[in-house]
Amino acid sequence: VGGGIIMVPLLIFIFPQFGVSSSCAVHLAIGTSLLVIFIRSIPATISYRRRDLVIAKAVMPLALASIIGTLAGSTLAAHLPGEILKRAFALLLFVAAAHMAFSRPIRSEDIRPRTAWWLVAVVGIAAGFFSALLGIGGGLITVPLMGYLLKFPTTKLAGTSPAIMIITSRERLNGVIWMI
User: Fold this and answer.
1) Which of 165, 162, 164 lies closest to 48 in space, CA to CA?
2) How confident is the model at residue 106 (pLDDT cuts 50, 70, 90)?
3) CB-hemisphere CA count at 13 Å for 152?
4) 97, exposed or middle or buried, with CB in 10 Å at 0-12, 13-18, 19+?
5) pLDDT at position 15 over 90
């Protein structure tokens, strides 16, 4: 899980201290988080790729599907008040925490990965949608979906996620500009 779950709430709290209106603070926090995630994803992907921990053939299909979700998520976020986005963010964190507390570990090394186009599309669209809507990276959405739905090897989940983020971040950041 990346810094978006820490950064967005922190920035929502800090921005008004610097004169940013509370109605703009949530949208600005989401955009700032996505920019930082993009910058951080580049060295992470290079490091993971050097250790052969990126599923390279899955990156582009997931990224292309993610762009569709990104357009939908950023459009919705642009039209939602900051208060609703804050509550949606809190709900996502609650669901993620409950999932972590009560779910079984992802064990996908012994299972053949699933690559059906429609399943890849679902994972990509969901990752793009929630990332653009709430300013989170792929770790909270993409990694579990790639593990549970696509059955990708656990050892390569954390490396594949930032590689997808590099490709899709341009669309996410463009969508956030419309929010502000």
Assistant:
1) 162
2) low
3) 27
4) exposed
5) yes
